Structure formats: structure tokens, C-alpha cells
């Protein structure tokens, strides 16, 4: 195997100031977590880039497969090395570029960076030598100095020569955990996993909450949500899932509130429960997959009535998104096929035939005032189950701090 290390470029992290080292440290920890199964990894973090040493082909293959999912990485390149001998350098360059031999036309250039100023050839001389060797061997290459498809980068360092040509796009964004933690309301549909993904991309660590209403919802519906929570872990962080027994509360809303306002009231109860769990687990916000106007409960009037139950920031990354765009992201991140499995969640039961799209807050509060919901909320929060992913087994909540 010719590759000795992988060079990681930070992208957005490069714009940070005095706290830049904290973001880099977080990214390094996330990389270690994402590849715990092939540990140990030798990682060297510098101010503007990071290096992962490659020990064998197996580790290299795993790194190349998973690194594109780790937030905080703008791009990365496998790097080969050789001794400071010109003939050896030329042979290595040919080997690195073999993957491009069968393409019809490839724009190309050679970049040289000399840390070791004692190397006998200067930058321009080394560029000419390498170009004179490579162009006859790759007749499909055409020199283009600005924005070529392939740039063979040669770094002359103190210890050896390092070369790279492939630049692989990373996930971008910020390292997960660099912008606090929030609680994702995970329904099992298409939208909420996408909302969780987008918040993770901005550096937010996610725990998830799901409302389970047996016997109206099935174990298959719950398993679908577990699968979605597990799918989100591939982006570099563990996810805890809090499953709330919601049947009692949902039936109480159905009995107490007029049919056309029950959807709004149900969402308000969900938000109250989520806010209690959020406070206990130390999350700073609540994330939802709501998109303005998509359904009756997502009009401005409905969202205003729902927001009324809490002063906690409600983060809605999909609020202006088109449904087709949401579906494209779900397909890209691998949650779409799971989300469309035909198992109903609690949001689809007791659905009124003509829900209010512009509910009046004072009317909703009036009907809710005839039932003591606080006791039911307390019981639902207390009786929640906790699952940790990627681990599969259920955890007792008193051990949650150890996860």
C-alpha cells in the first residue's frame, strides 16, 4: 500500500479565532469515536489541518468509507510518501495517478511546497521535472494551471517526500458537540431525521424523544424510530432515544378538547413533555422537523399556540424547506427508506377530519383547563424508556449520565 496518512482539511473551522483549538480538539475526539472499532488511531492535529496515520489496508478502507460522514471536515486526501530521490519520486507519482489513465481528458498541474529548503531542486525546477515525466506517460493529461481536475501536490518535508492527488469532499459543517446539545422530536417520518442531521451538521449534539402510544401504535413503528436514531449515529456521535408512553395523555386530550383543536393540544402536550426531558438531560433547545404550511399543525397560528407552553428555543431547520428538497436530503443521508415504512406513529391516530389551521390560543387554553394534565405529564416523563445507539440494548434511566 502506497498511502501512509490521510490529510484532513478543516474548511469552516479555519475561520475561527482564539477558540479554534477547541473546535479542532472536538473534531479529533469525534474522529476517534467514529473509528473506535479500528482503534488505536494515530492522529496529529495542526492549526490548519489534521493527519491520520495509516497502518494497514484494512484501516485505510474503513477511513475512506466513513470520513465523508464526519462533520467538521471540508475535504481529505490520501497521502503517499517516499525518500528524497528524484527517480523514486517520479515512480510514486505515476503510481498515484494510475486511476486517471483511462479517462478521456484530464486537466492537470503539479504543485510543489518545499518545507526543506535544502532540497537540491527549487519549486519550479521540480515542477518541470515531474511534468516532463508524467505528461508523456499520460497522453490524456492536459496542463491547466487554474482549477485543474487533478492537482498532483508534492510536499518536500524534512523527513521525506509526501504526495497526493485525490481530494475527497467531506461533510462540512462543524464538529458535533461544538455548539451544545438539543433534544430532537423524532416522529418516525421523513422530516424529523433530516432536521436532526442538519442540526448535527451545525455542531449540535442530539438526543431524541419519541412519543409511543400502544396499542394504537405498533412495536414495528417503535423499531422504525430506533433504526432512524441509530442511522443518525453514523455522523459521528452517540444518540440517546427517550421513548415516552403517550397513550394516556393522548386519550385525555381526545376526551377534553374539541376534535378540530385536538391536534394543536396534542402537540402542546408533546412540547411540555419534551421540555421536561430536555431540562433533565441538560439540553439547551428542542429540535423539530416542522416545515411552514406543510400540515395543519404547522401554520404560523398553530406554531404560535404550540410555542406558548415553553420559553425554550425551538429549532426548526426545515421551516422554509420544500418537501421535495427534504426528501432529497433524506435519500442522501440514508433515512428515507426507513422513514417511509408503513407503520403509523402517534401523530396519525385520532387525526381530526377538519383540523383547525388557525387555532385561537385562548380557546385551546380554555378547553385544556378542564383537565389536570400536569399529573399525566409527570407520569409520562417518569415512565420513559431510554435507549442508547449505536448500542442496541435498553438502558435504565438512572444510568443515563454514564452513556
UniProtKB/TrEMBL annotation:
GO terms for molecular function: tRNA-uracil-4 sulfurtransferase activity. Catalyzes the ATP-dependent transfer of a sulfur to tRNA to produce 4-thiouridine in position 8 of tRNAs, which functions as a near-UV photosensor. Also catalyzes the transfer of sulfur to the sulfur carrier protein ThiS, forming ThiS-thiocarboxylate. This is a step in the synthesis of thiazole, in the thiamine biosynthesis pathway. The sulfur is donated as persulfide by IscS. This is Probable tRNA sulfurtransferase. Its EC number is 2.8.1.4. InterPro entries: Rossmann-like_a/b/a_fold, ThiI_AANH, ThiI_fer, ThiI_N, THUMP_dom, THUMP_ThiI, tRNA_STrfase, tRNA_sulfurtransferase_ThiI. It comes from Solibacillus palustris. The keyword Transferase applies. ATP binds at residues 185-186, 210-211, 267, 289, 298. Gene3D superfamilies: 3.30.2130.30, HUPs. Residues 61-167 form the THUMP domain. PROSITE patterns: THUMP (PS51165). It is found in: Cytoplasm. Keywords: ATP-binding, Cytoplasm, Nucleotide-binding, RNA-binding, Thiamine biosynthesis, Transferase, tRNA-binding. Pathway: Cofactor biosynthesis; thiamine diphosphate biosynthesis. It catalyses: [ThiS sulfur-carrier protein]-C-terminal Gly-Gly-AMP + S-sulfanyl-L-cysteinyl-[cysteine desulfurase] + AH2 = [ThiS sulfur-carrier protein]-C-terminal-Gly-aminoethanethioate + L-cysteinyl-[cysteine desulfurase] + A + AMP + 2 H(+); [ThiI sulfur-carrier protein]-S-sulfanyl-L-cysteine + a uridine in tRNA + 2 reduced [2Fe-2S]-[ferredoxin] + ATP + H(+) = [ThiI sulfur-carrier protein]-L-cysteine + a 4-thiouridine in tRNA + 2 oxidized [2Fe-2S]-[ferredoxin] + AMP + diphosphate. SUPFAM superfamilies: Adenine nucleotide alpha hydrolases-like (SSF52402), THUMP domain-like (SSF143437). CDD domains: PPase_ThiI, THUMP_ThiI. Belongs to the ThiI family. Its main location: cytoplasm. HAMAP family: ThiI.
Amino acid at each position: 500500500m502506497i498511502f501512509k496518512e490521510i490529510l484532513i482539511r478543516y474548511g469552516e473551522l479555519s475561520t475561527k479565532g482564539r477558540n479554534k483549538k477547541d473546535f479542532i480538539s472536538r473534531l479529533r475526539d469525534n474522529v476517534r469515536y467514529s473509528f473506535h472499532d479500528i482503534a488505536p488511531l494515530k492522529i496529529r492535529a495542526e492549526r490548519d489541518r489534521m493527519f491520520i496515520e495509516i497502518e494497514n489496508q484494512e484501516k485505510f478502507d474503513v477511513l475512506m468509507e466513513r470520513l465523508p460522514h464526519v462533520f467538521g471536515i471540508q475535504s481529505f486526501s490520501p497521502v503517499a510518501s517516499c525518500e528524497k530521490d528524484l527517480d523514486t519520486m517520479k515512480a510514486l507519482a505515476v503510481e498515484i495517478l494510475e486511476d486517471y489513465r483511462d479517462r478521456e481528458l484530464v486537466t492537470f498541474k503539479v504543485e510543489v511546497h518545499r518545507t526543506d529548503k535544502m532540497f537540491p531542486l527549487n519549486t519550479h525546477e521540480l515542477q518541470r521535472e515531474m511534468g516532463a515525466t508524467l505528461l508523456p506517460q499520460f497522453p490524456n493529461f492536459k496542463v491547466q494551471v487554474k482549477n485543474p481536475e487533478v492537482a498532483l501536490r508534492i510536499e518536500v518535508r524534512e523527513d521525506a517526500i509526501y504526495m497526493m492527488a485525490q481530494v475527497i469532499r467531506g461533510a462540512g459543517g462543524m464538529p458535533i458537540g461544538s455548539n451544545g446539545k438539543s433534544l430532537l422530536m423524532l416522529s418516525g417520518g421523513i422530516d424529523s431525521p433530516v432536521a436532526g442531521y442538519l442540526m448535527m451538521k451545525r455542531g449540535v449534539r442530539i438526543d431524541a424523544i419519541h412519543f409511543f402510544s400502544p396499542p394504537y401504535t405498533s412495536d414495528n413503528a417503535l423499531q422504525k424510530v430506533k433504526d432512524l436514531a441509530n442511522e443518525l449515529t453514523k455522523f459521528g456521535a452517540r444518540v440517546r432515544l427517550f421513548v415516552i408512553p403517550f397513550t394516556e395523555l393522548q386519550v385525555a386530550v381526545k376526551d377534553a378538547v374539541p376534535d378540530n383543536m385536538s391536534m394543536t393540544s396534542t402537540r402542546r402536550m408533546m412540547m411540555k413533555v419534551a421540555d421536561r426531558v430536555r431540562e433533565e438531560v441538560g439540553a439547551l433547545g428542542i429540535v423539530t422537523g416542522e416545515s411552514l404550511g406543510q400540515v395543519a399543525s404547522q401554520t404560523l397560528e398553530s406554531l404560535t399556540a404550540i410555542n406558548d407552553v415553553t420559553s425554550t428555543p425551538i429549532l426548526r431547520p426545515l421551516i422554509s424547506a420544500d418537501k421535495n428538497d427534504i426528501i432529497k436530503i433524506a435519500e442522501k443521508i440514508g433515512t428515507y427508506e426507513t422513514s417511509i415504512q408503513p407503520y403509523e406513529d402517534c401523530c396519525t391516530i385520532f387525526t381530526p377530519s377538519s383540523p383547525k389551521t388557525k387555532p385561537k390560543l385562548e380557546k385551546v387554553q380554555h378547553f385544556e383547563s378542564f383537565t389536570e394534565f400536569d399529573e399525566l405529564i409527570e407520569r409520562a416523563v417518569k415512565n420513559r424508556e431510554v435507549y442508547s445507539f449505536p448500542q442496541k440494548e435498553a438502558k435504565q434511566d438512572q444510568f443515563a449520565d454514564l452513556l
